[in-house]
């Protein structure tokens, strides 16, 4: 099962990153943190990877409602959105929502059998 879905853009990295941030905040997401994976791998492991930024995106209203149903949802927050250089442009990916259980009173809180069939268990 794919853990994410995304799209390719011919924009350069900085432009794709700025557009992704603007799109997320324009839709009500906060970005409480961002990880520069390229620098982290280089500085801590001596490795070399293309430019990659991981944005932690969280919709506060949704997070509060989901947390009220099941505190375990905190394990999934914030959701990751990745911007990475690839083949003359950038790939922008987000977590596949079908990999996560439904956080509703009728959902995974009471019975794992009511999760979507694509729920990885």
What's this entry about, in short?
The chain has helices at residues 13-26, 37-45, 60-69, and strands spanning 4-9, 30-36, 52-58, 79-86, 89-95. It is an alpha+beta fold.
CATH architecture: 2-Layer Sandwich
Series of secondary-structure elements, N-terminal to C-terminal: EHEHEHEE
Distance between the termini: 12 Å
Regions with pLDDT < 50 over 5+ consecutive residues? 103-121
Number of separate domains = 1
Shape: globular
Largest sheet: 5 strands, antiparallel
The number of helices is 3
CATH domain class name:
Alpha Beta
Which oligomeric state applies?
single chain
Order of strands across the main sheet: 1-5-4-3-2
Architecture blueprint of SSEs:
Elements: E1 4-9, H1 13-26, E2 30-36, H2 37-45, E3 52-58, H3 60-69, E4 79-86, E5 89-95
Would you mind describing this structure in some detail?
This protein is an alpha+beta fold and 121 residues long. It has one domain: TT1751-like domain (TATA-Binding Protein), CATH 3.30.310. Helix content is 27%, strand content 29%. It has 3 helices and 5 strands, in the order βαβαβαββ. A 5-stranded antiparallel sheet has the order 1-5-4-3-2. Strand 4 and strand 5 form a beta hairpin. The radius of gyration is 16 Å and the shape is globular.
């Amino acid at each position: 099962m794919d853990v994410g879905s995304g799209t390719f853009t011919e924009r350069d990295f900085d432009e794709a990153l700025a557009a992704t941030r603007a799109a997320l905040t324009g839709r009500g997401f906060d970005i409480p943190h961002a990880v520069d994976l390229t620098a982290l791998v280089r500085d801590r492991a001596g490795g070399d990877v293309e430019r990659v930024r991981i944005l932690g995106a969280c919709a506060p209203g949704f997070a509060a409602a989901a947390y009220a149903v099941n505190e375990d949802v905190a394990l999934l927050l914030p959701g990751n959105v990745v911007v990475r250089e690839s083949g003359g442009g950038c790939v922008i990916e987000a977590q596949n929502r079908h990999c996560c259980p439904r956080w509703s009173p009728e959902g995974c809180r009471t019975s794992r059998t009511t999760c979507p069939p694509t729920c990885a268990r």
